[in-house]
Records
---
Amino acid sequence: MSDQLTVTVLGTGIMGAAMARNLARAGHGVRVWNRSRDKAEPLAAEGAHVADTPAEAVQGADVVLTMLYDGPAALDVMRQAAGALRPGAAWVQSTTAGIGAIGELADFAREHRLVFYDAPMLGTRQPAEAGQLIVLAAGPAEGRDVVTPVFDAVGARTVWTGEDGAAGSATRLKLVANSWVLAATSATGETLALAKALGVDPQGFFDAIAGGPLDMGYLRAKAGLILDGKLSPASFAVTTAAKDARLIVAAAEENGVRLDVAAAGAERLARAAEQGHGDEDMAAAYYASFDEKP
């Protein structure tokens, strides 16, 4: 098969729009759909066809990529597209759907004779825009020649976790990775909140850890967003992070593990959303440390 494919992207939010843009720039034919059409319209300038319905979007697609809010949303949109799906097309399911949803999504793929790839992405707005995501993928070796050009267009590298997308091995790895990301984000916010409460200049903290094992670029990046008040536009929104945190806690509980930090982090994110920070970067969980926005 030619490396030039027709790729449909269903869901053009922060991640999906950037991925669609990079697919178009790589020379693929790109068709896009989003529930709110205004989020998809700018992609027309990149040469993408903006469809009115999921069914219109998937017509003639070699690869259908879903980047939606959660598992039920992905299944709902694919059901809307069902009548126009081409048997044998690859479905790259990149929504962070959680372990519980993977089986139902894979069943849909089987019923409609799609080749199912469980393929969540590691990364946020900036790496997505730069085509530097890390693709975590599971799916049959036969057929990878179809999806590899897609992964190459959106990611810096692909980590294959297995040959059965229905087993959810890529999703499991994504939840493990996100548990670390969310814990680090929560810790950053709490550290800055404590510094404020104790009258400590945050720069003194950064100077104290500079160059040592406690120092890390992610800490400084998220702290910078908080200290500089640059929480919008979000790289990864509070509401989406809260959803992922709930999936992580649920996966742990179902497998007999108690994650106290993850559970507390989910509560912090939910509280920040209730305070009006839901569309801001997940670093805005910082404000959950205060009864009112300081």
---
Amino acid sequence: MTPTLAGQHLPHAGAAPRVDRRARARDWAEIQERMLVPLYEAVYDRLEVGRGTRLLALGCGSGLALLLAASRGAEVTGVDSGADERPALARERLRPPGRGPRARAAARIVEGSPRDAAPVPGAPAYTLLTAFGPAGHTADGDAQSLGEQLAAATPLVRRGAPVVLAGWGPPERCSTASVLRVAVKLADSGAEADRPRPAGRDDLEESAWRAGLRPDGSGRVACPFGYADVDSAVRGMLSTGFFDAAVEATDPEQVDKELAEALHPYRRADGTVWMPNVFRYLIARIP
């Protein structure tokens, strides 16, 4: 995403894309994104997000985190690269439900650079910046992309305001880590920059320091991934974008098969799939 829990990878030059990005975006919005709700809510509770909060979200994707903030009374703006259909889904999801004094204010969704999300002349600066997307197991190039986005976004945010970065917790506490190894195994060895990698213990802090931010607290949140069946689990995992390079390097059928096999240990007697995970977030401040 922009770095997201979903890394967005471009197809190899000269090749027809094998990934249906519209279907992936819909699966993300309908299946996968809800797995991160505990993370979003924990951050919003800790920072007391509500009326008076002006939120700028990097890598907003299909907008669920924005919707949760808006339901608390925050004014929300999301930025996304627009590499798939997710921003369109975010606009649909965040459309004001009605008119009248209690109607939710319209959200702003920007496709492009954070600079394009600058407050309109005369409007106050943002009071909160979030980058929930870079959740570990991202391609190495995503770290550079995140740094560039933070550099563009922080001048739009009030000094001293919190900036939230998020990532996977320790691999031993993330069942999904073993499933994501399928993406690494199948990815083209000649496309190293597109291959996902495990998150490092200090990735969030290093990203904050590189962006000139001051770390000011952190937390861990349980975010189990639960699915109705293996098919839903496969679709949900594919929607993250982590497997796109593997699909390009092999073929969709092989990726589906090996992904389903990797999910087998987490299938329960009733056919559902359950993978306990822990996510970590860092709160930093703009000096």
---
Amino acid sequence: MSGTVRWGVLATGGIAATFTADLLAMKDSGAEVVAVASRTEASAKAFAERFGIERAYGSWAELVADDTVDVVYIATPHSAHREAAGLALEAGKHVLCEKAFTINAREARELVDLARERGLFLMEAMWTYCNPLIRRMTEMVRDGVIGEIRTVQADFGFAGTFGADHRLRDPALGGGALLDLGVYPVSFAQLLLGEPDRVQADALLSPEGADLNTGILLGWESGATALLACSIVGDMQTTASVTGTKGRIDFPQGFFFPEHFILHRPGHEPETITSGPGPQGLSGMQYEAAEVNRALLAGDKESPLVPLEGSLAVMRTLDAVRDRIGVRYPADERA
């Protein structure tokens, strides 16, 4: 690939706008946004005008057929990730796909297999894994700064008022707290400990069968445990903590895009670790965009920061949680 990575954006919602703004604001990134697609031409044109994008398409098929597009950013709801990412991969495009990666582990495996068969780059847009402070934390844990991990705690929840027709209560759209919010605590725990050996969970379900408030307990043969929670009916702290045999690391509110964390060790004063001043006005998605640019220019087919096997493992855990709490999606029935 040449020195410029040409992006196509598939979908025009809020997360697509945030990502595109970050990508365009990155200096000397070697990236440009050349096309956008929506299910309606009007929405695509409005998005293109907003961000100064040259081409706007009223269908996904037109975007993936565009020869000037190198990589497609999938920003649809997760219920459409399999279809959208699959369409892009079938057309020979590299893909960055929002999280949760797919509706279930089967769909995720299908995408990974397709990318590998076609020799294409595929990455879940787990921006947390690309954040410099999260990377610093994992290095410290790996170097034994807090000893052997014993517990991980993390939660993500907000109190919302969602009617029965809202997508967050629609099983056909993967509705509920787990795939929208719970994916963050689960991914955080598995970044540090890998796929769990045991999964327990309980939840409050809506009349439609979507999880409104979910608690998760994960266990590993090492003796480590993770206590995780997510909610769309309760305003949680959205913090995280990693406790080891020699210390503890605490992340304040917004653990999935942190500006600092605090290291606690016996005999030492608490130490605040910061990433330093970052680019003004950016959300944090620039780090995952930069990783995709780096990988594509290097010819890599997947990222070591967000490995595909890790994304598959997270999807298996989310499936196991849904099995425990009794949440089924129509997509689960399609083989």
